[in-house]
Write a structure and sequence with these properties.
This protein has 4 helices and 9 strands. β4 and β5 form a beta hairpin. The protein is of the alpha+beta class. It folds into 2 domains: 96 residues; 60 residues, no CATH class.
Length: 173
């Protein structure tokens, strides 16, 4: 079943100028959760509107925990109310699966070849003991354009991420 899931940015065929929102779950989704959320998002995107006008949108779920929602604003811009509907949909997943897509203090990173989800204290401990460094690749959850993500902006070094100023890189060479 997972072969039909949208799990790559390459599946999104919208212009590079399209607006993106990234949401990271506090844990890796199970296959059942991923399929359920995928189906809900397919239905949602198919009927997503702003002021009665259809939005040209798409999504993908990367590494079973990072959701990318994309809207082509050149066709129709989303309104505040329409954007709120995405947040409401994701909030409903908290109630259904105990998934939280709104923990903005977490960092999604590739560590030792695997996707890991860390909080600040875990990263600092990894930096302090030398197990992690500023070059560790983390998801850039602040990106807002599809082209940036597709051109390599999805990942960036920890030392260039939003959390870097809150960390001490004492073992950097």
């Amino acid at each position: 079943m997972s072969s039909i899931l949208r799990n790559s940015l390459s599946a999104i065929k919208l212009p590079d100028s399209s607006r993106v929102w990234l949401f990271g779950a506090q844990r890796i989704l199970t296959e059942i959760e991923e399929i359920s959320i995928h189906r809900r998002l397919l239905d949602f995107i198919a009927g997503w509107q702003a002021h009665g006008k259809d939005l040209t949108a798409d999504f993908c779920i990367i590494h079973r925990c990072v959701l990318v929602v994309v809207v082509d604003e050149s066709k129709e811009a989303p309104s505040g109310c329409s954007i709120d509907k995405v947040f409401q949909l994701l909030q409903s997943q908290k109630e259904k699966f105990d998934l939280d897509f709104f923990q903005r203090t977490l960092v999604w990173a590739m560590h030792k070849g695997e996707l890991c989800i860390f909080n600040k204290q875990e990263i600092q401990a990894g930096l302090d003991c030398g197990e992690m460094n500023g070059d560790m690749q983390v998801f850039n959850m602040l990106s807002d354009r599809l082209g940036e993500l597709k051109s390599g902006g999805m990942m960036l070094p920890l030392k260039e991420s939003w959390i870097a100023p809150k960390l001490e890189f004492t073992h950097e060479r």
